[in-house]
Write a structure and sequence with these properties.
alpha/beta; Rossmann fold; binds zinc ion; single chain; 2 domains; 23% strand; 6-stranded parallel beta sheet; Quinone Oxidoreductase, Chain A, domain 1; 6-stranded antiparallel beta sheet
C-alpha cells in the first residue's frame, strides 16, 4: 500500500509498504478520510513529538474508515463496519486510570499511520476507543472526532458556566472548535486570531466578536473593554506559543480560569505575576488530549449536525498531495484537509 512516513523535520516521504495484517485483538481499516491536524503540522515542522510518536513513523492520527480485516479474538466488529478509531487508548490499570484520569495514563497506546491506504488499529484501541459511525455522518466529519474530543475535554476542565464571557486566542481548527461549542451556551465568546478569513469562520460558528491581533496593540485592554473592565471569565489559549500563554493570563478577570491548551515547544517556560495569581485567585489549567468518554461525546455531537463543522474542512485530497497540503496549512490557506488515500 501507499503510506506517508515521517523521517524528520519537514521530511515526509510517500512509500510503498506492506499492507498491514491484524494480529490478535486488532483490526485493519481501509482509510476513507484522514483529516490533517495542527498537531501534524507542528510535528512535521519540529520533526518529532514528546509523547505521540518516534521517528521514523507512519504518520497521521485522525481517521474514519471501513473495517477491512479483523484479527482473532475480536468480537462485535465486522468487515465493512464504518468506524472512527481514536489515536490512543488508556491502559485502565495504572495509578491514573484507576482515578479515571485517563489522559494522564503513562502507558497510553498511541496509534499513527492514518495517511495510508490501510491503518492497523492496536488491540487496546479496538477494545476501548473504536466507535461506530452513525449513518448520515460523512467520513470527513467523522474523522474530526479526535480533535473535537480534545476540545470537549478542554471545556470540561475550564469551569465553564453557561453565559460566561470567554476569550479564545488562536484561530486554528482547535480554537474554532472551542468557539463553536462554547457559543452554543454563551453570547459572549470572543475570538482573537491572525487571519480575517478564519475569523469570519469563527463568526459563522457563533463568535460574538472577532479580532485580528495584527490590528491591535493591547489585547488584554481590548478584553477588559468587552467585559466591564475586569477581563474574561474563561480564557482559552490555543496557539502553543509561550508569550501567548502569558498574554492569555493577562486577559483573565480575578477568579477566572485560564485554559493553557496549546502545547508549547519542549523546555520553554513562562513568567507569571505572583501577585496576580495569588490575589486574583486565578486558576491556570493545562489540559492535554482526550479520554474515551469525550471521544464518544464528540462523535455524537458531530452526528447531531447541530454545529456546521464542515466550515473547517476543505475538499478531499489524494495522499500524493500531502506535502503540498502541509505547505498550504503553513501558509494558512486551509484549516483542515481530509486526505482520501483511495484517490492515490
Ligand atoms: Zn489531531
Ligand atoms: Zn493507565
Amino acid at each position: 500500500m501507499l503510506a506517508a512516513l515521517l523521517y524528520g523535520r519537514e521530511d515526509l516521504r510517500l512509500e510503498t509498504v506492506a499492507d498491514p495484517t491484524p494480529g490478535a485483538g486488532e483490526v485493519v481499516l481501509q482509510v476513507a478520510a484522514a483529516t490533517t491536524c495542527g498537531t501534524d503540522l507542528k510535528v512535521w515542522r519540529r520533526g518529532g513529538h514528546a509523547k505521540m510518536l518516534q521517528l521514523p513513523t507512519l504518520f497521521g492520527h485522525e481517521v474514519c474508515g471501513k473495517i477491512a480485516a479483523v484479527g482473532t479474538g475480536v468480537s462485535g466488529w465486522q468487515i465493512g463496519d464504518r468506524v472512527v478509531a481514536n489515536n490512543s487508548a488508556p491502559c485502565m490499570k495504572c495509578f491514573f486510570c484507576q482515578r479515571q484520569e485517563y489522559s494522564l495514563c503513562p502507558h497510553l497506546t498511541w496509534n499513527n499511520g492514518t495517511f495510508a491506504e490501510f491503518v492497523k488499529i492496536p488491540a487496546a484501541i479496538v477494545e476501548r476507543n473504536l466507535w461506530r459511525v452513525p449513518d448520515g455522518l460523512t467520513e470527513e466529519l467523522a474523522a474530526m472526532t479526535e480533535p473535537l474530543a480534545c476540545v470537549l475535554h478542554g471545556i470540561a476542565r475550564s469551569n465553564f458556566q453557561p453565559g460566561n464571557s470567554v476569550v479564545i486566542i488562536g484561530d486554528g481548527a482547535i480554537g474554532l472548535m472551542f468557539v463553536a461549542v462554547l457559543a452554543q451556551q454563551s453570547q459572549e465568546v470572543y475570538l482573537f486570531g491572525g487571519q480575517d478569513q478564519r475569523l469570519q469562520v469563527g463568526e459563522q460558528l457563533g463568535a460574538a466578536k472577532t479580532f485580528n491581533y495584527r490590528q491591535l496593540t493591547d489585547i488584554p485592554g481590548t478584553v477588559r473593554q468587552l467585559t466591564s473592565g475586569w477581563g474574561a471569565d474563561i480564557v482559552v489559549e490555543a496557539t502553543g506559543v509561550p508569550t501567548v500563554w502569558e498574554m492569555a493570563i493577562a486577559c483573565a478577570r480575578p477568579g477566572a480560569t485560564v485554559n493553557l491548551f496549546g502545547g508549547c515547544p519542549k523546555d520553554t517556560t513562562i513568567t507569571v505575576n505572583t501577585e496576580q495569581l495569588h490575589y486574583s485567585e486565578l486558576t491556570l489549567k493545562g489540559v492535554f488530549h482526550n479520554t474515551p468518554t469525550y471521544v464518544q461525546n464528540a462523535l455524537a455531537l458531530l452526528a447531531s449536525g447541530s454545529i456546521p463543522f464542515d466550515l473547517l474542512l476543505s475538499d478531499r485530497r489524494p495522499l500524493k498531495d500531502l506535502e503540498q497540503v502541509f505547505q498550504e496549512m503553513l501558509q494558512r490557506q486551509v484549516i483542515k484537509v481530509p486526505i482520501d488515500p483511495s484517490q492515490g
